[in-house]
Amino acid sequence: MSYTQGSPNATIPGAHREQTLARADAPFPFSHSENLPAAAAAAAAAAAADYDVSAVHPYFAALGDVLSGELVAAGDADYDRSRLAWNLSIDQRPAAVVFAAGAADVVAVLRFAAANGLRVAPQGGGHNAGPLGDLERTILLRTIRMNQVSFDRSTATVRAEAGALWGDVNAVLAGTGYAALAGSSPDVGVVGYTLSGGYSWLSRSLGLAVSSVTAIEVVTGDGVLRRADATENAELFWALRGGGGNHGIVIALEFKAYPMPDVYAGAMLFPLARAAEVLAGYERWTRDLDERVTSCVRLLRLPPLPELPDFLRGQSFVAVDGAVAADSETAQKLLSPLEILDPVVNLFAPMAPTELGTIHMDPPTPTPAAGGGVMIDDLPVEALERILELAGPEAQTSLLAVDIRHLGGAIGRPAVGGGAVDRFTGRFLAFGVGIAPTPEAHAQVSADVQRLVAALRPWASARQYANFVEDSAPASTFHTPDVLPRLLAVQEQFDPAGLIKANHPLS
Ligand SMILES: Cc1cc2nc3c(=O)[nH]c(=O)nc-3n(C[C@H](O)[C@H](O)[C@H](O)COP(=O)(O)OP(=O)(O)OC[C@H]3O[C@@H](n4cnc5c(N)ncnc54)[C@H](O)[C@@H]3O)c2cc1C
Predict the structure, then answer these.
(1) Residue 10 — very low, low, confident or very high, per pLDDT cuts 50/70/90?
(2) Which uninterrupted H or E stretch holds 206?
(3) Spacing, Cα 127 to ligand 1 middle (Å)
(4) Which residues contact 244 (CB under 8 A, 6 or more apart)?
(5) Spacing, Cα 186 to ligand 1 middle (Å)
(6) Tens digit of each residue's pLDDT (9 = 90 or more) over 435-490
(7) Pick from 125, 124, 176: nearest CA to 150
(8) CATH topology of domain 20-142
(9) 435, 367 contact by CB (below 8 A)
(10) Which end of the chain is less congested by CB atoms within 10 angstroms, N or C?
(11) Looking at ligand 1, which atom is closest to the CA of residue 363?
(12) Where does the FAD-binding PCMH-type domain start and stop, copy by copy (predicted)?
């Protein structure tokens, strides 16, 4: 049986064969090149300092006419609303925004960009737009209208289109007895999250989300719609799984769902004043912890938001939240070393795995924020002291949350047939975030985030998780010396003109 949600008009008949879609041949000004690689010359000309991108603007209407989706150019009435990322404090100003309706639109946009010296930046949930930088010569390709999700129980496979959010996937899987490797926020985009790793509340037992991907439909930078899996375009499949969307614009992902009864999940809250004791107890607990437990310890300063319950509104806590993929009795035993620390509230309870998006209290809608993180190999006493100095009970900080997510288990092991990123070697993933409604607040929160990251640098892992880095960073931050040249070789083959602009580029 199949379960379906979202608009049906974005399915891709024939996506299993390599093809350049006919619609993409529509004539555009300057569309003299028959194939996209030949457009490298146009891209090179556009890179010249005196290239005037405004000369292209009159032709956006022609592109808009051939799209099934919508095009909003700089200067249009809807431009300011259309260019918003999820993080409302990011001021992205692309040459135009396209809300694509399907693969044919994506091909048309790539062809137009190639012929006119522009680049194309795909964006789904828009949660990590910060590192994209200057978009003046870029078309921002929003995929949020391509949000169909289906589940094939006979193969336990989910197919999610490029703009689907984890909440869309959870809605389709609810009541099926299956779960996928969703992140803590239902609002996060499935594709952006998965292409760089994907840390789920089920990851310590089931691995990173990227290693559960079984096939990818993608329009590569050369304008061709392809399917990539273990046997077809296998090298591209390897690169896409970890390469962060540098090789093409994903149209849909297929990935495994797992049979999963209720999990035992929730949070324990302790007074922030007891942060030193709870952090130390948490670190002790995580040594040799059963892989069925995936958790996070957090220093939280909650804002006085009306939608929060009374006991949380405006309060500060140390929280341990997470999920145990086991029956209640086993889970309670596994959680007992935390229970002994005597929380003021224990909200752990049996829960459907598709409800796990509620436990971390991530903001449910677009928010102005600044954040950043660092993967660390250890959490010794000195590191805990640094964290307490910066975010403990005595600290003056703009950070709403400092999270330390526990890694290890299946996250740390190579995945069979895995891609360019198939594991994280660190022991913890730290992340600091604060609300930033004004430029001044953004500067303050960013400075506090940088202080946190710098303080933990002595324990930083050799490679970092791209999705937890919200500033520009060299590709060597994320990829090992053996992986990076291989990713670049695949990019040279499938996006020779360098049309795709990813938030974390390979060079
Ligand atoms: C509140 C919050 C909670 C989070 N929780 C978790 C969590 O639990 N676990 C975790 O691992 N991460 C988590 N993250 C981090 C999250 O995984 C990253 O921010 C991720 O990049 C979000 O994907 P997106 O599609 O929403 O973002 P986007 O900004 O849309 O995408 C990020 C990048 O992915 C690429 N991309 C997106 N769509 C496509 C496409 N169709 N084709 C090719 N490339 C594409 C692009 O390079 C794009 O710049 C969280 C982030 C936030 C803000």
Answers:
(1) very low
(2) helix 203-206
(3) 5
(4) 195, 196, 466, 478, 502, 503, 504
(5) 12
(6) 999 999 999 999 999 999 999 999 999 999 999 999 999 999 999 999 999 999 99
(7) 176
(8) 3.30.43
(9) yes
(10) N
(11) 1
(12) 90-260
Q: Distance between CA atoms of 339 and 368, rounded to whole angstroms?
A: 35
Mean pLDDT highest for which of 17-31, 361-375, 452-466?
452-466
Give the tokens for residue 222. 């050369």
Closest atom of ligand 1 to 504 CA is 47
With cut-offs at 50, 70 and 90, classify the pLDDT of residue 306.
confident
Q: Which residue has the tokens 């880095």?
A: 469
Which residue, among 187, 158, 162, has the nearest Cα to 69 in the 3D structure? Answer: 162
Q: Any bridge partners for residue 367, and if so which?
A: 87
Count of other CB atoms within 10 angstroms of residue 505: 17
Closest Cα to atom 3, ligand 1: which residue? 185
Length of the chain in terms of residues written: 507
Distance 275 CA to ligand 1 centre (A): 30
**Per-residue pLDDT at 8:** 27
**Nearest alpha carbon, ligand 1 atom 18:** 467
Pocket of ligand 1, candidates 467, 478, 506: which has the most ligand atoms within 8 Å of its Cβ, to mutate? 467
Is the fold of 20-142 the same as that of 263-351+368-462? no
C-alpha 201/C-alpha 205 separation (Å) is 9
3-class DSSP state for residue 180?
coil
Higher pLDDT pick, 241 / 14:
241
Amino acid at site 95: A
Kindly give the number of the ligand 1 atom that is closest to the alpha carbon of 185. 3
Tokens of 109: 């946009």
Tens of pLDDT along 328-356? 999 999 999 999 999 999 999 999 999 99
Asked if 366 and 88 count as a contact pair (C-beta separation under 8 A), the reply is yes
Ligand 1 centroid to Cα of residue 161, in Å, is 14
User: Of the residues 83, 106, 119, 127, which should be mutated to test ligand 1's pocket, given the most ligand atoms within 8 Å of the CB?
Assistant: 127
pTM of the model: 0.92
Cα 356 vs. chain centroid, distance in angstroms? 17
* Residue whose entry in the numeric block shows the structure tokens 């903001």: 363
236 closest CA partner among 421, 40, 14, 487: 487
Q: What are phi and psi of 52, to 5 degrees?
A: -105, 100
Give start and end residues of each alpha helix (H) in 287-380. Answer: 328-339
CA of 26 to the centre of ligand 1 (A): 32
Report how far ligand 1's centroid is from the alpha carbon of 226 (Å).
22
Query: What residue spans define the domains of the chain?
Result: 20-142, 149-259+475-494, 263-351+368-462
The CATH code of domain 149-259+475-494 reads 3.30.465.10
The domain 263-351+368-462 having CATH identifier 3.40.50.720: the answer here is no
Which atom of ligand 1 lies closest to the CA of 123? 30
- Pocket (CB within 6 angstroms of ligand 1): 122-129, 132, 143, 162, 183-185, 188-189, 191-193, 195, 197-199, 244-245, 249-250, 362, 467, 502-503
